[in-house]
């Protein structure tokens, strides 16, 4: 039996055992959780037991996670389909040297960070001015990895945002750029165009729209544009002065890029010192990931719990449920991080994947989700493993009672998933309400919660820049470990290409410049409807 089969065999043996019974062992909670620099990952409310964990760890060992991990950190070209190293970790590990092709890549990284800091400081202090005075607003135009990270983080760290106001434009829908720019004054606005490739159609189209908007009121538009990219020839062709261009290398993947120049918007919002705290949090998680034994290694265990639920138990989706309003964009950020990284159907060597690819990741902050989709999580016919995130403290001391209520709700949901409510308990509730006979039975059945539904919880002290850095690096490494175990290259994204190519070909059809020969009947009919031709 190979390791996967052994795990499946083990699962078959334990699947009917209620998770709650595992807590007969009073040491269960402590033994099935991992601590790392103030973070606590509790996976005790899952059906993983001592032997299951040992088998999962053996799976990771057998996949050579440790060797791949070191290959990544040391700059080997592990992104084999694109022939690139994967070194986003270098952006937050500023004291070390990282040698790629015989060259230390760190001096330019530090130099760019220094320039970003000077630029951010100038904007924050008012030294760098727009043509109508101090810069009050900064607009980041980017999409995917050039948007989701800084947008998520600016919201997450709102209590630390004391610089110019930040705004984000991503969608090619003109409504987005229109609605964001409409209330702003071009004379006091700085636009950052963030695009690794500087070819992404959404970003370049929005950048042109912003330039026209700027030109309506400002004579020297170039002065109020900055760019973040790894294609410096294209930024200068767009007319952005090299002094306001912040470059990075192709070994930083788009969805892993917020630690470097793509984080410029965040740095402007929270200031260079706090941005360094964010980097330190990421670096602390890197150090933990590289040194902790697998059983006590948070990213490794997070990944193994994911593999257990998805590939072994067959639960195809996972809900990410932050009990922290400011993490409301975390699920969207993780959707790109996880689904673009591990949503692949072939292995690194081009052969068909033997196991399923990564799960569908989705979610919303609690408690809002409780009043919307938790119904299905509790009583739907499919099991959805839930990943809760909760801070021990909020940032509003005057509203500490609300934070307590928030925490109570989070713990209560995990408990409800674990415990459920039996038919007998539901009957007793209905009897207490005065029901009897068939009506009692019918009503009681609607009030049964099967329970025995797995969840994990990540507890952090408080959502500071350092802690956010830890959490994001934790998720990055989780994706890496899952990818290695599945044999996937987590660092390419060929699956986004086809739609882009077809969109380019369809635009002239919509415009009426091309007849759309070769298109299917549905597409052509929809084109006619959109053109008002029937
Ligand atoms: O930063 P850019 O080059 O503009 O790319 C923006 C995004 O678009 C692409 O289609 C990829 O799917 C993403 O991984 C990337 O983050």
UniProtKB/TrEMBL annotation:
Entry keywords, A to Z: Cytoplasm, Gluconeogenesis, Glycolysis, Isomerase
Biochemical pathway: Carbohydrate degradation; glycolysis; D-glyceraldehyde 3-phosphate and glycerone phosphate from D-glucose: step 2/4; Carbohydrate biosynthesis; gluconeogenesis
Cell location: Cytoplasm
Annotated active site: 340 (proton donor), 371, 500
Top EC class of this enzyme: isomerase
Main location as per UniProt: cytoplasm
Enzyme Commission number(s): 5.3.1.9
Top-rank lineage group of the source organism: Bacteria
CDD domains xrefs: SIS_PGI_1, SIS_PGI_2
Record-linked InterPro entries: G6P_Isomerase (IPR001672), G6P_Isomerase_C (IPR023096), Phosphoglucose_isomerase_CS (IPR018189), SIS_dom_sf (IPR046348), SIS_PGI_1 (IPR035476), SIS_PGI_2 (IPR035482)
The reaction(s) this protein catalyses: alpha-D-glucose 6-phosphate = beta-D-fructose 6-phosphate
GO molecular function: glucose-6-phosphate isomerase activity
Entries under PANTHER family matching the protein: GLUCOSE-6-PHOSPHATE ISOMERASE
Family: Belongs to the GPI family.
Described purpose of this protein according to its UniProt entry: Catalyzes the reversible isomerization of glucose-6-phosphate to fructose-6-phosphate.
Protein name per Swiss-Prot or TrEMBL: Glucose-6-phosphate isomerase
High-level lineage: Bacteria, Pseudomonadati, Pseudomonadota, Alphaproteobacteria, Rhodobacterales
The encoding gene: pgi
